Amino acid sequence: MKKFIIDPMDLSVDEINELVDLADDIIKDRSRYQDVCRHKILATLFFEPSTRTRLSFESAMLSLGGNVLGFPSGNVSSATKGESVTDTIWTVSCFSDIIAMRHPKEGAPRVAIRRSKVPLINAGDGGHNHPTQTLTDLLTIHREKGRFDHLTVGFCGDLKFGRTVHSLVKAMSRYEGVRFVFISPEELMLPDYLKEDLLDPLGIPYKEVRSMEEVMSDLDILYMTRVQQERFFNEQDYLRLRDTYILDLKKLDNAKKDLCIMHPLPRVNEISTEVDDDPRACYFKQVENGRYIRMALILSLLNLDHEVERL
Amino acid sequence: MKKFIIDPMDLSVDEINELVDLADDIIKDRSRYQDVCRHKILATLFFEPSTRTRLSFESAMLSLGGNVLGFPSGNVSSATKGESVTDTIWTVSCFSDIIAMRHPKEGAPRVAIRRSKVPLINAGDGGHNHPTQTLTDLLTIHREKGRFDHLTVGFCGDLKFGRTVHSLVKAMSRYEGVRFVFISPEELMLPDYLKEDLLDPLGIPYKEVRSMEEVMSDLDILYMTRVQQERFFNEQDYLRLRDTYILDLKKLDNAKKDLCIMHPLPRVNEISTEVDDDPRACYFKQVENGRYIRMALILSLLNLDHEVERL
Amino acid sequence: MKKFIIDPMDLSVDEINELVDLADDIIKDRSRYQDVCRHKILATLFFEPSTRTRLSFESAMLSLGGNVLGFPSGNVSSATKGESVTDTIWTVSCFSDIIAMRHPKEGAPRVAIRRSKVPLINAGDGGHNHPTQTLTDLLTIHREKGRFDHLTVGFCGDLKFGRTVHSLVKAMSRYEGVRFVFISPEELMLPDYLKEDLLDPLGIPYKEVRSMEEVMSDLDILYMTRVQQERFFNEQDYLRLRDTYILDLKKLDNAKKDLCIMHPLPRVNEISTEVDDDPRACYFKQVENGRYIRMALILSLLNLDHEVERL
């Protein structure tokens, strides 16, 4: 395993399979892993706040018997005194055994690792990468479907700015027989570069549509995202379009019985709460999977993944 | 034991006795409890800051051998992204074994528990409830007096807005032979509903007075609270009245030898520091009791209270 | 060992030797110390943020098997409600076994300890004292040079306001054969009181110069500090002088082979990153030493330093 996880694509298909297997094993019997990281310290350095991601990392480390220190937002870090990210990470790598870092600037993790003495996981750098979210999504797909290949994956909402969408499209493009359906308003369509540089050269089939209803029955996976008002030129457009991208039970009428509905969370109203009790709703399973895949990743980066004999 | 503690009155008299007994047992021999919560995680979610309460919860969990994660104030939570409290708690309940939540809005905990997969303790919701403060007060009364019944309990200061006062009045109303004395300026008298809906129907004797001196010799308990300047219409009224509600050694002249002086803290100047060394000052004993009753409550909610054989 | 460490000069030369010996022993075999503080709680109370110092304390306590609680900045403490520092510390001392406190006001720790039931370490009070930084510097000097006496110690940069400089000058003044060289712009010279009240009466030799080059070859230690723009009357002066106080490889041309370059960090640009790979660069060793000396200090204050048999 590499020492630094910056981009989800840093991981090979084989490495992802290993992580998914390890996470599966952890889920099977958590108690066997509960002391593996004893005396180890995870530093969670969040230069911008992201409570969900931070708590997921901290829960993962504590569930492995390890310890946690860090900061929850940039205004309590000493970056305000003009210190470089390289120096901050160098310093914290003297205090910890592994680092999870969130930073508002794209590319910050590449600068951060220059002097790091310990493994580092990018926990999100601006609109760029967020590898543990992608790994969470992959684990969820694998646990729900038993495979990565031969799936029709729909993405719905803001496909222009949603980094989790871009990353998952890239990650799923590596598997055979995968088809994509992109459901979005015209203003928020998937960026051209992903189609021209990735999907087209690989000959991966995809469709772009304006509404869920017309494609719902084809989907194995429906990945919902938030449509933020500030992405629109004017309020009327936003109000007119918003409801089209809200998933409710009615829109699920002709969906497959084993559709897997995902969402990176937080949601505002793009999935109606009436869907929450539907067995196809997997977005809170994703939250749980996020903890387990982070446990697997921490173990791998600390080279402790073989400390526990697999079941 | 219930799964959720929202209102101190959620607990029956019997359940309170059980908690008090358990806390007493913990105080007798802390070392027997120091590993009971090993591998368990408490989430402290403070949507508004309250350092004293948060640290008390965290100290309680750490003293049981458990772990802690969370956030100390709302501005580092993802509520800012428009997520509902229900979703936030649902998420965090995937990361932890028990939650303590503080929220500025009354009623927030009832919304929060809708999807929680783990026990939740209300650590204060606006001016509404704060059950662990009430339990702290009850443990202190029981440890100092050996009983809850047949006590004359004085409350002094801001009785209009002080939620700890309202809760403790309700909680103590359940015991036989309890009498209340309410000492406050006219502007800050106990709300009518407590008298009309609670005390009068139960026939509980109470007195309302303007100064401590006239009732001091009757009291078994004197519960002091802060008188905040912003509660008054004008500064003159505040300045005129303030000193009347400051407890000093002189005002204790004709108090009982075993009076128990309480305060929920923080204090500003409503108890003169000259009282701190008086053996009747119990407000820092309250702080310690707050830790122990929270240990008892965490153990009960996690169903671990019978893991340790009682002395 | 004392119960409270407020000023680095609170510690005798013998006590410093003991701490340095203990830190050396910890560095030799960390695993022997990894559970010594089990079930103990360190409270880190940072009324003003200082991530480096806080994380160093937390890492130290976790590396001893202990636990940590606290707050990272004043705006999440209840000082905002008008509570005195004495009361806050009294409260927290009911929740913890040892306290590390940072406060923006000089002298705050003396007020803080009045009612503290547990040991307290001053983690910096305004521009005043910062004893664990001084201990970190001393451990670094001792590890690099094997002694405290007969050294020529240069200080460079802002010698007027730099509290770490003042403290280290005081601490090193106690050893035989020590000589000082003070390198600074006229505006930022060492305060007169240190020369007139400390160095002159003890007959300690010192020199004051304007540039590093003229004294570099004499130095055993070069202690760099940040030159802050806001210390200057005008921008021209700052820009004119700044470069003089930036250490680069060229300025090290005629330095001793075993010069020890130190910096309390964070640095902005006063040490060029090209120096980072020079074996004489010791500033990140200082970071590591900071963790170890804090481990030693925590053990001593908790009277656990003799729990582990020395190697």
Automatic annotation (TrEMBL), chains A, B, C:
What reaction is this protein's catalytic activity? carbamoyl phosphate + L-aspartate = N-carbamoyl-L-aspartate + phosphate + H(+)
User: Could you tell me the EC number(s) of this protein?
Assistant: 2.1.3.2
Which biological process terms from the Gene Ontology are attached to this UniProt entry? 'de novo' pyrimidine nucleobase biosynthetic process; 'de novo' UMP biosynthetic process; amino acid metabolic process
Annotated Aspartate/ornithine carbamoyltransferase carbamoyl-P binding domain ranges read 5-142
List keywords of the entry alphabetically: Pyrimidine biosynthesis, Transferase
InterPro entries cross-referenced by the UniProt entry: Asp/Orn_carbamoyltranf_P-bd (IPR006132), Asp/Orn_carbamoylTrfase (IPR006130), Asp/Orn_carbamoylTrfase_sf (IPR036901), Asp_carbamoyltransf (IPR002082), Asp_carbamoyltransf_Asp/Orn-bd (IPR006131)
Supply the name of the protein: Aspartate carbamoyltransferase
Q: What is the organism of origin for this protein?
A: Intestinibaculum porci
